[in-house]
Amino acid sequence: MLPADEPDPLVVDQYIRAIHQGLVDHNDGLAAEERLRLRVALAFGTAYPSANGYAGQAVVEASRLVDWRPLKKIFKKREDMNIVLILSQRVFEDVVQQGHTSYGIGDFHRVTIREKEFSGSAWIWSPEFRPEDLRLLSDSTDTKADDQAENLGTGTSQQAEVINNLSGPVDARRAVFGIGRK
């Protein structure tokens, strides 16, 4: 969740690059199980307060992007990878493709995401990507998600909501968190 006065290009570009550098500095010399690593998903859209956080299609889209199984597979395989940024199609088109960041279009790799009820294009960037990582992304398919997407009929109303309740100490290794301001 971004405040209305926060420029999107600043978050997509400088903020993500600063987080990456911070992770590189922090992780230098640490054992694999002690490293901090992030999968970051950014999507545009309406988000509204709900009982335990935020709800809305943009919240669900960002959740599906960051939880995409092939991305998790690469992270598990590549313990030296510090950060992966995955942008929704709209964020990529409105921010990167329009030239509002220091990224080049070629810095990103287009993928098709099929995760739970979501199906769509997204764009992935990581300074630690190798060609074999991209093959893992392009070779992945999810027939279960394909079947679910085909079974979603027209006229169906769905309310999307992502809720995380944390209470007490949390071992956050290999965890995914969505953080917003109220």
Q: Give the overall shape, derived from the CA principal axes.
A: globular
H and E order? HEEEHHEHEEHHE
What is the helix content?
25-40%
The total beta strand count reads 7
* Largest sheet, strands/sense/barrel: 4 strands, mixed
Radius of gyration, CA atoms, in whole angstroms: 17 Å
Strand coverage percent: 15-25%
Give start-end ranges of low-pLDDT stretches: 141-161
Q: Overall pLDDT, averaged?
A: 79
How many H/I helical runs?
Answer: 6
Across the major sheet, the strand order is 1-4-6-5
Tell me the distance between the termini: 9 Å
Computed structural class? alpha+beta
Task: Walk me through the structure.
With 182 residues, this protein is an alpha+beta fold. 35% of the residues lie in helices and 19% in strands. It contains 6 helices and 7 strands, in the order αβββααβαββααβ. Strands 1-4-6-5 form a 4-stranded mixed sheet. A 3-stranded antiparallel sheet has the order 2-3-7, with helices on one face. The protein is globular and about 40 Å long. It starts with 7 loop residues before the first helix and ends in a 19-residue tail after the last strand. The model is unreliable at 141-161 (pLDDT under 50).
